[in-house]
Structures
1.
Amino acid sequence: MTFDFTPFILTLKLAVATVIVLLIVAMPLVCWLFYTKSLSGPIMRAVIHLPLVLPPVVIGFYLLLFFSPSSPVGALLNSWGHIRINFTFTGLVIGSVLFNVPFMVNPILGGLEGLPLSLCEAGFMAGKGKWTTFFKILLPSVRPSVVTGCVLTVAHTIGEFGMVLMIGGKIPGVTKVASVAIYDEVESLNFAQAHVYSLLLVGVSCILIFTLFIVNKRFPGAY
Amino acid sequence: MEGLYSNIRKVVGRNEGPFRMQAELLLTSGECAAIFGPSGSGKTTLLRNVAGLESPDEGEIVFNGIPWFDSKKGIAVSPQKRRIGFVFQDYALFPTLSVAKNIAFGMPKDASRDIDLLLKTFDLQELRHRLPHTLSGGQKQRVALARACAQRPLLLLLDEPLSALDIPMRGSLQDELARIKETLGVTTILVSHDVGEIFRLADKVFKIDSGSVISSGTPHEVFHSPHDRLNLRGRLIEKRMQGVVCIATVAIGSEVSHLAMSAREGAELEPGKMITISVKAFNPQVSLEK
C-alpha cells in the first residue's frame, strides 16, 4: 500500500509561506498599531480580529467572489497578465494570510504592550525614530511573542479546512492540503490513509507546542 | 542665554486627583540642579517635559537660546533633536543588546573609539559583551550613564538613578557621578529624594510640591534649618501610656527608638503614620560609620 504525502507537504509549504508573508506584512502593521494614538487604531484592531469571529468558510466564500473573473479585482488581475487567484496555491496563501493576521499580530502586540514604556523612550532619547526603535529594540525584546505568533499561525494553517476548500478547491498537488485530503479519504472510506494524514498533523502539532515551550525558556533577557 | 530656562504649566493626573503643575527652572550652563520633593509631587513629570517625552499644556522651554517648546509659537522640538542624555529610574537598558551595543546604540557607526573611551571612563571594559540581565544594579547604572553620555549630550537628565540601590552602593556611585560631572561639565538635572545625594552632587535645588517650586537655592539654603535642629522622619509603630507619659515607638530607617512625650502630644499621634522628630543637641555624640 503506497501513501501519497503530497497533501501533507503542501500543507507544510502553505504554513511556511503564510508565516513568511505575515512576518513581512504584519510587522509594519504591528508597529503602526503599537504607536498610533488615533481613532483608526482601535478600528483597525477590530477589523483584524474579524477572522476570529467569522466562520472560515465565509471568509473563503467572499474571497472566492472577490477574486472571481466576474469581479472588478479578478477582471483586473486577468487583464494584467492572466493572473488567477482562485483555485491556485497563491490563492491559498492569500486566504491563509488574511485568516491568520490576528494569530500573528495579537501575541506580538501583547508582548510589546507588556514592555516598560521607558524602553521605547530610551530609544527616542538615543536619537532614534519610531521605526528604528521598533525594529532594533522593541521587536527583539519580544522574540518569544514573535515565536508564539509564528507557532499559532502554523497551527491554524495546518488545521484550516473550510476556507482553503472554498478558495482552493481540492486540486491534487496544487490546493489539496492535508485537512481536505483527510475529509476526502474518509468520504471514500479509506481510513488507513486518513489515519496517516491525521497522525502526521498530530505529530506536527505536538512539535509546535514543544517548540513554543522550549523557545520561551531560551531567550535570555527578553521580555 | 547659555543654560536652561523652563516655565511650564500642565495638568497632571495622579491617583489622589489631578493637580496643576506650574514650575519655573533656571539653570546656567554646566550647572547641576536637583529636583527634590515627595512622591507624586511631579518631579519625574517635570523632567519628562524638559526631555520632550511629554508636552506641557502651556509655557516655554529654552536651551542655550534655542526654543525647545513654546506653546504660543507652536514649537515642540522632538526628543530625538534635543541632544539630551536621559537616565531612567529603571535604567531601561536594551535587554537583547550587549553592554557595548547598548552604549553604541545612539552613536554614529564609525564611533568605535568613543565607545572604548566610554567603556574605560565608566569602568565597563570587562563587561562589554555581557547582556543587561547578567549585571548588578550598580553595573546597570554605570551602563545607563555611559549610554546617556554616548551622544555627547548638551543636557543630562537623571531620574532617581540611584533609588533602586542599597545605601553602600549608592554612596560609591554618588562618588562616581560626582567624578563624571566634573569630567564632562555638562548641564545636569537630577531628580532625587535623597538629601545626602543632593548635597554631594547638586549646585542648586528646586524643592517642589504638587507641581510648584516651593523653594530654590543652594542645598544649604534650601535644607538648612533656621533653628539648628535636626529633623528626623520616622513611622510611628505603636504608642502606650506609662503613668502620666505616652511612650511612642518610632522606626527611623532601620532603627527603632522609644520616645517619651506628654499624654496630650501622644493623643494626636496615630500608629502607622509618618512623623517628624526635631532634635536639638548642644553636644551630640558623633562617630564614623564602619
2.
Amino acid sequence: MLEIINACKSFNIGTVNQKDALINLNLKLKPGDFTTVIGGNGSGKSTTLNIIAGVHAIESGKIILDGQDITKLPEHRRAKFLGRVFQDPMMGTAADMMIEENLAMANHRGEVPLLGWSINQQEREFFAEKLKLLDLGLENRMSSKAGLLSGGQRQALTLLMATLRKPKLLLLDEHTAALDPKTAAKVLELTQEIVNQDQLTTLMITHNMKDAIRIGNRLIMMYNGKIIYDVEGEEKKQLHTSDLLQKFEVASSGEFASDKMLLS
Amino acid sequence: MDLSALLASAQDAAGQGLLWSVMAIGLYISFKILDYADMTVDGSFALGGCVSAWAIAYQGLNPFFALFIAFFAGCVAGAVTGLLHTLLKIPPILAGILTMLALYSINQRILGQPNLSMSNEVTVFNAIGDKFNLSRMQQNMVIGVIAAAISIALLYWFFGTKLGTAIRATGNNENMVRAMGINTDVIKIIGLLLANGFVALSGSLVAQSQSYGDINSGVGAIVIGLASVIIGEVFFGKDKSFAVKLISVVVGSIVYRIIVAVVLQLGLQTNDLKLLTASLVALALGMQRVVKYLTDKKVSQKIGEEGEQNA
C-alpha cells in the first residue's frame, strides 16, 4: 500500500544545527496493516509521518502510495488519500466553525471547493449517524462550535473527519498524548473500532509501549532516523515492554538505556 | 449647540456611513474572516475612486459600469498582495504595504494628476437623484442602503458555499484546511481579492458621491474600517450569526460617521479626525482587554470562593 524507498530528510542543511532526521528510510506497508511506531524524541517518527503527508519534502528517495508516486505532490494534493490526526487537539478542527461544518469539509476532502452549498440535509443526517457511533452525544450538538469541545471530543471528531471518506492510509501522530489517561483510552478504543471496521491501513505513533504492543499487527521502532526494529504478527503479540527496552538498548549501544521518553 | 444642524449632519453622516460600510465589510473579510492584516486597503480604496473618476470623466463610461470596473481593479490589487504573500513568502503586513505604496503611484498615473473632478459628469448618485428627485442626502442614503444590502446578501450566500467555508476555515486553522486537500495559498488569494474588490467598490461609491476622485482618499481607511468593525461588535456582541455580524459592521460604520459628525459640531477640525479615529480604535481595543481582565478576575474569584466552601 505504502512504500518509502531510501528517503532522506535533513533540517537546517549546511548550518551547525543540521539535523538528519531520516537516513535512507525504507518502509513498506501491506494493505490493512495497522503499524505502531515507537522511538525516543528526535528519532524521526513524526518526520516519517510528515514526509508521507507532504508537510516536508524529502531530499532524496521515493514515496509510493497505492502504486502512485507521490514524492513530488504538495501537501494538499496528497490529502485526498490520507486521513490525519495530530497530537494537538487544536490542529485537526476549525475552532470557530460548527461541528457539522468541520465534518462537511472532511466529507469533501481532496475536492476543489466550489460554489455549491457547503452542507445539505442529507449530509447532516449522515453526520449525525456517524457521530452517534462515537457515543459522545455530539450528534445533538452539531451546530455547536468545535472550539467548545473538550480535547478528547475534538480528537474523536478529528478521527471521524479523517476517516469519513475512507483514506488509503491513516496517519495518527501521537493523537492521544495530550489527553488524560481515561480519555486517551476512549479515543484509542474508537481508533481501533474505526480501523477494524473499515480495514484501514494505519500508521500510529505512540509513546506508550504497552499500547504499541497491544494494538495493531505490526510494530516498528525508530532510532536516529532509522528503523531499528520491525516485528509483526504472532511474534509481536508475544512481546513484552522489557523486550522493547532491550532492543532499544542494543540499538543505541546503551546510550539511552533508560530513556524516560520510551517508558510510560 | 444647534440641534437641527446636529440632526442634519447626523443624517448626512448616516448616508456617508452606509457608503463607507462596504469598505468596512471588505476589511471584515480580510481582517476577521481570513485573519489577515491586509494593509492594501488604503491603496485599493483610493484605487476604486481613481479608477471610477477616470472611467467617468475621461472615458465617459456609464457610472454603474464604473462601479464594476472599480470592483475589478480592487480584486486585482488584492490578488497582487495575495501573490506577494503566498508566492514570494513576504509577511502579510509587508505584502499589503508594498501593494499600497505601489498603488499610490498607479493611482496618480490613472488620474494623471492628484485629483479629478466629476462634478460635470453623470454619476450613480445624480443619475438616481434626478430620476427620483432626491436630495443629496437622500441619494447617499438610498444608494448606500442598496449597496450595503447587496453586499451583505452576496457575502451571506458566498460564505455558505464550499469555497466560502474554505476561506473561513483558512482564517481559523490553515493546517486543517491543508489536511482536507485544499490549497490554502489559492484560498488566501481569493479572500484578499474579494476583500479588496469590496473596498474599491466603496471607494468608487464615495468618490462618485463627492464627485471627486483623489489619490489621497484612502489614507486611514484601514483604521476607519477597523473602527467600524469594533464599534459594531460593541453594539451587537461577538458571538452572533454571520448575517448579524455583517449588519453590525454596517451599523458600526454609520455610528462611526455620526461620532465624527458630532465631534465636528463640537468644534474639532477635519484635520483632527485621524487622531480621533486612531484614539477611538486604540481605546476600543484597550477596553476589550480591560473587560476581559475584569471578567476573568470575577470568574477566578468565584471559583476560589466555591473552592473555600467545598474545603
